[in-house]
Amino acid sequence: MEELKQGYRLLVLMVVITGMVSANTSCCSYPCQNGGVCMTAGMEGFHCDCTGTDFYGTLCDTPTFMKRIKLWLKPSPDTTHYLLTHYNWLWDRVNSIDFLRNAVMKKVYTMRSDMIDSPPTYTSDHTYITLDANYNQTYYIRTLPPVPSNCPTPMGVWGKKEMPDVDRIIKKFFVRKELIPEPMGTSALFSFFAQHFTHQFFKTDIKKGPQYQWGGHGVDVSHIYGRDKDAEGKLRSFKDGKLKVQIIDGEEFPPLEKDAPVGMIYPPGTPDNRRFAIGQQVFGLLPGLFMYATIWLREHNRVCDILKAEHPEWDDERLYQTGKLVILGETIKIVIEDYVQHLSHYNYKLLFNPELLFGEPFQYQNRITVEFNHLYHWHPLMPSEFNISGTTYNLREFVYHPEIVLKHGMHDFVDSLSKQRAGQFGPFNHGPLTIPVVTELLKQGRQLRLQPYNQYRKKFNLPPYKTFEDLTGNKELAKALEEEYQDINAVEFYVGLIMEKRRYKSVFGSSIVEMGGPYSVKGLMSNPICSPKYWKPSTFGGDVGFDIINTATLKKLFCSNIKGDCPVVSFEVPDYLRGDDLHDEL
Ligand code: HEM
Ligand SMILES: *[C@@H]1O[C@H](CO)[C@@H](O)[C@H](O)[C@H]1NC(C)=O
Ligand SMILES: *[C@@H]1O[C@H](CO)[C@@H](O)[C@H](O)[C@H]1NC(C)=O
Ligand SMILES: *[C@@H]1O[C@H](CO)[C@@H](O)[C@H](O)[C@H]1NC(C)=O
C-alpha cells in the first residue's frame, strides 16, 4: 500500500514537473500548442489532446513530417498580405483572366473559412465542449473557451493578480483629444455601412448577460425587414410585395412608428414625426443609419416593381419573399466586392461567386462569436464632426436626429458622408459618446474571461507578440502599457486590438484582418442563398433577379434610388479633398 502511494506521488511529481504548474490549475498556462486541447488530469496534472492537429508530443509541439513540409512552404500571413497589396502589374493580369481570378478567390474562401470551427464548440459558460454550444442559439459562441476560473491570475498565469482599473485604461489609452483621421482615406460612408451591416447579427441580450444574444447568427437582413414575423408584418404594406413608405418632399422614407409600431428605441420626448420605424430597433440613433435604412427600403420596393413586371401572376407574399432574397444577395455582393475590397486594400479584385465552393468540404452554417462582436467595436472610425453640405454637426447634434437626412435630402447627405474622413482605429481616438460603450466592453470582456490577446494571435496562425513594443510599434506607448499589464501575455483582447500597430497599407493591425477575415468569409459564404439548392435564378424570380444580384455595386445601390444626378458614393474620400497625411506609405 505504502509503495503504491510512493509510486503515485512520484507520478504526480513527474506530471507536475512536465506541466511546470501544480494542482488542477495546470491548464491556466495554455500549455498545449497548435490547437491541442488541454484537459486537467486528476487534481495535479493535465493532458494535451493533439488529435487532428498534425502535431504530437506532450504539448502538441512537434509537427508530423508532412506538416513540417507544409509549414515550410506556407507563406506567413504578413507575406501573403504583402503579396496581395503589391505587384499591381501581376494582379492586373489575374483580375482580367477569369480562370485565375476564380482560382485565387476559391483559395481565399477555403483558407479563411477553414480557420473557423464548424459546428461550434464553446460558449462563455464552460471551458470545455458542451452540446449547448451547438443547440442553444441564445448563446454567442466562443472561438477560444474562457480562462478557467481558478487560475493564479485573471489572464491565466501571467500579469497581476488583479486586472488594471478599467477607467484608468480608458483615460490613458482610449480618449480622443483631437480627431486622428483614418490614414488610408476611409470615408464616413464606410463607417456607417459597417455599423448598419453588422447590427443585423450583433445583438447582445445585455439584460441576460454579455454571453447571450437575440439575433439569427448571420446575414439574415433582419435589420431591414424586422426581428421576427410580427415586426415584418408591421413594416410591410401587403401590396405588391412592398414595404411601407412615407413621401417627404417627393422622396420615399421609412414610415413613422405610429404607422408601423415595431418598438423603436428613442429617447423620451422624441416627437411623433421624428420616430421612424426601421427593421433594427436602434437605427434611429444616427442619421447615417437612417440613411442606409432608407436606401435599402427604396431598393426593396424598386426590386419588387421589377419582379412584378416579370411576374404579373405573383401575389404580394411571393413578391415580398423573393424581393427579400434579392436584397440579401445584393448585400453579400456589395459587402465582398465594395466593402471588404476597400478594407483589404488588395490589388486583387475580390469576387462574390458561391459556385466556387460547390463540391468543396464546406458547411453552410454559421454562428456569431463573442470575439467577432468585440473585434467589430470600430467606434474610433466615427469622426467627431460631420460637415453636411457646409453645416457642421458634432456627434451630440447628430445622435437621435435622423431628420437631419430629411433636411438636406438623400443626395446631399450621401455626397457629404462620402467626402467626410473617418477616424483611425487605434489609441486616443474614441469620441465622447463612445467612451461609455468601450468602458462597458472592457468590463464585459473580463466578465466573459476572454483569453489573452496573444492566445488569439496563436489561434489565427499569427506569431504572439514578444514585447510591448512589438505590439504597439511605439516606445512610449509600450512603456505605459507595460506599467499596466506587466506581461505581454496578460494584455486583454480589446486593448490589444486598439494598441496594436497598424499594418502596412491597411486600416487595421494584422490581428483584426487575420481574425475578422475568417469570421466574415465564413459568415457571408455559409449563407443559405450561397448553397447549391438556393443559388440559381429561379430562387430570385428568374434571370432578372439573379442579374440584379450579380451586377450589384454600392454606387448602383445609391444611384438607382436617388432622383436626379448621382451623388459621390465612395468608401474613400476623393483625392482632391485629401490632406498630405494620406497614403503615407504609397
Ligand atoms: C458615434 C457613433 C456610435 C455610437 C454613439 C455608438 C453607440 C453604441 C452603443 C450605445 C452601443 C451599445 C453598448 C452596450 O449596450 O453596451 C453600441 C454597441 C455596438 N457598436 Fe456602436 N456606436 C457607434 C458607432 C459604431 C460603429 C461605427 C461601429 C462599427 C461597426 C459600431 C459597432 C458596435 C458594435 C459591434 C456594438 C455591439 C452591439 C451588440 O452587441 O448588440 N458602433 N454602440
Ligand atoms: C480544483 O478545481 C475545483 C473547481 O474549480 C476547486 O474547487 C478545487 O479547489 C481545485 N483543487 C485544487 C487542488 O486546486
Ligand atoms: C439556453 O440557455 C439559457 C441559459 O442557460 C436557458 O435559460 C435557456 O432555457 C436555454 N435554451 C434552450 C433552448 O435550451
Ligand atoms: C464643408 O464641405 C463643403 C463642401 O461640401 C466645403 O466647401 C466646406 O469648406 C466644408 N466646411 C468645413 C467647415 O469644413
Overview of this structure, please?
The chain is mainly alpha-helical. Among the domains are: 1-74, Ribbon (Laminin), CATH 2.10.25.10; 188-425 and 515-577, Myeloperoxidase, subunit C. The protein is 42% helix and 5% strand. The chain has 23 helices and 8 strands. The protein has helices at residues 2-19, 65-73, 77-85, 88-96, 98-113, 132-135, 166-173, 188-198, 222-225, 229-235, 287-310, 316-344, 370-375, 395-398, 403-418, 435-447, 453-459, 468-472, 475-485, 493-499, 510-525, 543-550, 554-559, and strands spanning 37-41, 45-49, 55-56, 62-63, 246-248, 251-253, 385-388, 391-394. The strands form 4 sheets. A two-stranded antiparallel sheet has the order 1-2. The chain has a two-stranded antiparallel ribbon with strand order 3-4. A two-stranded antiparallel ribbon has the order 5-6. A hairpin with a 5-residue loop joins strand 3 and strand 4 (62-63). Helix 5 (98-113) crosses helix 21. It is globular, with a radius of gyration of 25 Å. It starts with a helix and ends in a 27-residue tail after the last helix. The structure holds protoporphyrin IX containing FE and 2-acetamido-2-deoxy-beta-D-glucopyranose (3 copies).
